[in-house]
Amino acid sequence: MNRKTFLKAGSLTGAVSLLSGSNAFSQNMVDNDMDKLVDANGNYIQQPLPYAENFLEPYRDAETMHLHYTFHHGNAVKGANKDLSMIQKAMNDNNLETVDFWTKKLSYHFSSHVLHSIFWTNLTNKKTTPSGDLLKRIDKNFGSYDQLKALIAETSKNVDGNGWGIVAYQPCSDSLVVLQCENHEKLTQWGCIPLLVIDVWEHAYYLKYKNKRTDFVDALFNIINWDNAAQRLNTAVKLMK
Question: Which of 59, 81, 63, 78 is nearest to 198 (CA)?
Fold first, then answer.
């Protein structure tokens, strides 16, 4: 098995299926440029931001956006490619003594790549609110948009250490769920497809909001792109039929 085949078969399809439990995220790789996580050779790639670094001001400053996208997300992509190359090397050398280390690193780096790629598209420079099928499902599963907003905000604010708050679609129950993800990959539920993610790693807010994570999460609701979350939901539901 060569590197290109290994990357495509062993990481793209496998890792995405483990993350989503379906091919919804794979479909978004075709429909949404930010969701195209690999190049033609199967190497992980970081897509350009879909807007300028100052696009989200005043709620997210340009300097934080630059550092967050370039170094934190960028280094996750570089790390995932290194992890894959080390797994491939272990296979080629028939020496799997360290493969558990590199697979754990890949879980961390690849999950970071996926969640950051969604995060950028979940933000816009205007205030939006859920509508259509997304709003109907929010009302059904959470009672109201205000109740979902309170739940995802509190979930995000109270992640131990670093991590994410996530609104996801759960195909097995055909419902929306709120998840709390520690780091990039822990405490998640298999089979759930992320629709909206809130990054509460300190690097996402520390320059502007200092240690006030609560203020940062509250401010994000001014720039959350619910239209993007609705598009992701429509794709997920359509592919599960």
Answer: 59
